[in-house]
Amino acid sequence: MPDFETTTETVLTWAAPPLKFGPGAIAEIGENLQALGVSNVLVIT
User: Fold this and answer.
1) Helix/strand/coil (H, E, C) string of the chain?
2) Tell me: the pLDDT tens digits for 1-45?
3) Contact 41, 34 (CB under 8 A)
4) Among 29, 24, 27, CA closest to 42
5) Side-chain half-sphere CA neighbours of 12 within 13 A
6) Is this structure's pTM higher than 0.70?
7) How many angstroms separate the CA atoms of 36 and 32, rounded?
8) What is the C-alpha to C-alpha distance for residues 36 and 28, in angstroms, rounded to an integer?
9) Exposed (0-12), middle (13-18) or buried (19+): which is 33, by Cβ within 10 Å?
């Protein structure tokens, strides 16, 4: 018998990352990613 209790919990908490959205957002993405030090990017529009 396992030493832990199993659960049937079906609720989970998920925090979404910040999103860029709206007119002009695509123009800011490059600058934001450069500030984060990102070198490989996939942008889906």
Assistant:
1) CCCCCCCCCCCCCCCCCCCCCCCCHHHHHHHHHHHHCCCCCCCCC
2) 567 677 787 888 888 888 888 998 888 888 888 999 999 988 777
3) no
4) 29
5) 6
6) no
7) 6
8) 13
9) middle
